[in-house]
Write a structure and sequence with these properties.
Layout: E1 5-13, H1 23-27, E2 33-36, E3 40-43, H2 53-57, E4 63-71
Antiparallel strand pairs: 1-4, 2-3
This protein binds iron/sulfur cluster (2 copies).
């Protein structure tokens, strides 16, 4: 049996550094960020495509784009 995976780009937030400024929420063209309980940003479900716009605009530099392998 062969396990199939696909690679997916995804924004990852360092929640300890995030100041919940809302910039990533505002600039994301896919409405893929939310400010969880007003405390820190996190991607919403499967919407994030890893485009990196939020990473480039975060004033704290606490977003990074990771590549994850997911089962298909
Ligand atoms: S732009 Fe950065 S600091 Fe601001 S809410 Fe998003 S992750 Fe947090
Ligand atoms: S990487 Fe792109 S799609 Fe994902 S949350 Fe950031 S701006 Fe939105």
């Amino acid at each position: 049996m062969t396990d199939k995976t696909k690679k997916r780009r995804l924004a990852v937030v360092n929640a300890d550094s995030c100041v919940a400024c809302g910039t990533c929420f505002a600039v994301c063209p896919f409405e893929a960020m939310e400010i969880y309980k007003g405390c820190y940003a996190r991607p919403v479900g499967e919407r994030c495509v890893g485009c990196g716009i939020c990473e480039r605009n975060c004033p704290i530099g606490c977003i990074s784009i990771k590549i994850r392998e997911e089962a298909v």
